[in-house]
């Protein structure tokens, strides 16, 4: 049974947005809100009639409005139209709207990176935290939505702790880094040689440097391009005709030229190893056609991976992540039920407190009334009367309070007679 999570005091959760699944990049970029404007956009969101709390999440893959509303007729679509001063019909086909339980589930999945383009990527949680910080800073989060977003952080942490969803590399560049770490143990100070100055080589080099790689050499048939790319990495450009005289300096060679044939053969590798005193070398051949002869892989101390090898590792890792995603989804569902139950229980707290105070006032009044008839009581007698009356009130309250808490989690419809029977544990004849 689908249980609504709102009630008179709890508010209603709502998500409206576009993401990489529903909208092409040309639509997402029209709705993107830069970080510098995030506070202003969040302030405008909570001014929408009916919105009590709000948060705006804007990344390269999604733009989402999260709100806690005080009625079910809030129209967040108008926000986009007013904020961007464009007709809503322009992006209406790409919008998705999620309410209550579905909105909660969605935020948990987003924070845990189950709704990302690359499942398990860690960046999205930081982006959600940034949006939360901005919303808190402008006073747009106070109670229910604040509780939901902070719970999403705990859910994401649990997914990371109890699954390995983010542990395997799922891009060619990141796989290359992982393989290099396995070969060398550490990339700290390792020398990288870019043979060819293409975009994929540049990306892989950035990954290697971010994990500790040191000096970068760049050789390209167009020397000007080699100079440009070397300057990007504070490295050194080498003329292409000096390639074979300098390649032995490198621990890792990223090879990606437009040559229609191999440029590194087995005899080259044997000579490089001799000059390196048998220190290992790692060739990452991402050229098509291949630039590194597969025979080079048979030389002890030389490791060669071509683009198909790297893609095979990527595919295997993606399959692993999908399996872990199934376990992560189970965590999401259990956390969803816990959050809904706690939210419902919190909503009946004022009623519970009022009922307790009401019966306590009756108890006190009755004790005071009877005390006058009993005359002077000893301290032990006072304590006995107090303990007796408190025990009676506690027993009377037990069933009604339990019923209230259960009803908050699992709403049900019943007659007044049935409600009284359940609240006081009465049996039918």
| CATH topology descriptor of the largest domain | Beta Polymerase, domain 2
Q: Please give the count of helices.
A: 14
Separation, N- and C-terminal Cα atoms: 31 Å
CATH superfamily of the largest domain: Glutamyl-tRNA reductase, N-terminal domain
Q: Could you tell me the number of beta strands?
A: 10
Structural class, from helix and strand content? alpha/beta
Overall number of structural domains: 3
What is the top-level CATH class of the largest domain? Alpha Beta
Question: H/E element string?
Answer: EHHEEHEHHHHEHEHEHEHEEHHH
What is the overall silhouette? elongated
| Strand line-up across the major sheet | 7-6-5-8-9-10
- What amount of the residues lies in strands? 5-15%
Summed over residues and divided by their number, the pLDDT gives a mean of: 87
Radius of gyration: 33 Å
- Main sheet characteristics: 6 strands, parallel
Helix content: 40-55%
- Can you name the CATH architecture of the largest domain? 2-Layer Sandwich
Low-confidence stretches: 6-10
């Amino acid at each position: 049974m689908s249980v609504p999570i709102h009630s008179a005091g709890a508010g209603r959760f709502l998500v409206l947005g576009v993401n990489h699944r529903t909208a092409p990049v040309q639509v997402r970029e029209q709705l993107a809100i830069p970080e510098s404007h995030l506070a202003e956009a969040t302030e405008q969101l909570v001014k929408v009639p009916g919105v009590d709390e709000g948060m705006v999440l804007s990344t390269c893959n999604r733009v989402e409005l999260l709100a806690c509303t005080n009625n079910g007729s809030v129209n967040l679509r108008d926000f986009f139209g007013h904020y961007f001063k464009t007709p809503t019909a322009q992006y209406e086909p790409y919008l998705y709207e999620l309410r209550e339980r579905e909105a909660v589930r969605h935020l948990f999945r987003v924070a845990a990176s189950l709704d990302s383009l690359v499942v398990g990527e860690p960046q999205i949680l930081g982006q959600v935290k940034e949006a939360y910080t901005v919303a808190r800073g402008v006073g747009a989060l106070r109670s229910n939505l604040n509780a939901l977003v902070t719970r999403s952080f705990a859910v994401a942490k649990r997914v990371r702790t109890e699954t390995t969803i983010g542990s395997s590399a799922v891009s060619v560049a990141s796989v290359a880094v992982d393989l290099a770490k396995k070969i060398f143990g550490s990339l700290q100070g390792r020398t990288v040689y870019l043979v060819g100055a293409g975009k994929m080589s540049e990306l892989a080099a950035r990954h290697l440097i971010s994990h500790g790689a040191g000096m970068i050499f760049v050789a390209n048939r167009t020397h000007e391009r080699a100079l440009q790319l070397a300057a990007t990495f504070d490295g050194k450009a080498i003329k292409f005709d000096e390639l074979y005289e300098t390649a032995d300096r490198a621990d890792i060679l990223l090879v990606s030229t437009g040559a229609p044939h191999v440029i590194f053969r087995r005899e080259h590798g044997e000579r490089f190893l001799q000059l390196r005193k048998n220190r290992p070398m790692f060739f990452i051949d991402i050229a098509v056609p291949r630039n590194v002869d597969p025979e080079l892989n048979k030389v002890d101390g030389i490791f060669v991976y071509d683009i198909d090898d790297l893609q095979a590792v990527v595919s295997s890792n993606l399959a692993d992540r999908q399996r872990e995603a199934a376990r992560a989804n189970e965590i999401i569902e259990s956390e969803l039920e816990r959050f809904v139950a706690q939210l419902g229980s919190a909503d009946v707290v004022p009623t519970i407190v009022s009922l307790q105070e009401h019966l306590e006032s009756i108890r006190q009044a009755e004790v005071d009334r009877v005390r006058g008839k009993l005359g002077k009581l000893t301290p032990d007698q006072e304590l006995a009367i107090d303990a007796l009356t408190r025990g009676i009130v506690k027993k009377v309250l037990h069933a009604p309070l339990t019923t209230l808490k259960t009803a908050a989690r699992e709403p049900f419809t019943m007659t007044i007679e049935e409600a009284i029977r359940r609240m006081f544990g009465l049996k039918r004849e």
